[in-house]
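Okay, can you check this protein?
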Amino acid sequence: MGDFDSRDREEVYSKKVRAGKRTYFFDVKATRSNDYYVTITESKKRLEDGVFVKHKIFLYKEDFEKFAEGLKETTEYIKANQEVAEKRYEFVDSNESSTSKITDDISFEL
């Protein structure tokens, strides 16, 4: 069973996206046969105990087109049926002083 432990998979690329109270990680990993796949992880800190709760999905290359199509249709539906206010998220960068803020604008197109 330990053969498919995700820690054994080679990480090829990683992108971290901070969005309000959540952080998303888009990681490209390689199988032993060097096929790439994507893991999408949502991480959110629980207020009651400070523990980070993570949810992860695996997206394989044969599903990219259908996944992107479904996501695009879903986001277009929301944009067409409800006003979407773009938000600017502020967070304190741990490498800078606590008075310095960085604004991160999160947007994407499919």
Remarks:
- Residues 36 and 100 are 38 Å apart (CA to CA).
- Confidence is low (pLDDT under 50) at residues 94-107.
- The chain has one helix and six strands.
